[in-house]
Design brief:
Layout lengths: L5 H11 L7 H7 L8 H13 L3 E6 L2 E6 L3 H17 L3 H10 L5 H18 L1
Antiparallel strand pairs: 1-2
């Protein structure tokens, strides 16, 4: 699965979190307002996403509706694995240490992680 550039990923996040198919105007209304993205640029991104097989377009009258073809969780899992391998050499301890030393996670997060690991371990038994 291809990694999406941030601009296309931003559109995919909007499409994934929408209730049903969305129009270009729906997407534009939800885009980050701090970035001035022109309607033609949004159309270009949507066209690229369609070409890559991430979305499908259905025309109803004069309006195009966009729906996801790629599952959000599947994409996030693939991206997570890629980042984990590239940045941390598949080392969970390096990953957690990096987050902890960088103050990205605290004791509460570590407790939650321990609980998750315990639950996963219990399911294997």
């Amino acid at each position: 699965m291809k990694k999406l550039p941030d601009s296309e990923l931003e559109l995919m996040m909007i499409i994934w979190h929408s209730q049903g198919p969305v129009t270009r105007m729906d997407i534009e209304a939800k885009l980050d307002k701090s970035r001035d993205i022109l309607p033609n640029t949004v159309l270009s991104f949507l066209s690229r996403l369609e070409d890559k097989g991430f979305i499908k377009k259905e025309k109803q009258g004069k309006i195009n509706y966009y729906s996801p073809l790629v599952d959000e969780d599947k994409y996030l899992q693939e991206e997570g694995k890629s980042i984990f391998k590239k940045m941390f050499g598949n080392s969970l301890s390096r990953f957690v240490t990096s987050l902890y030393d960088g103050n990205a996670i605290g004791e509460e997060d570590l407790t939650e992680l321990r609980n998750m690991l315990d639950e996963m371990d219990d399911k294997k038994k």
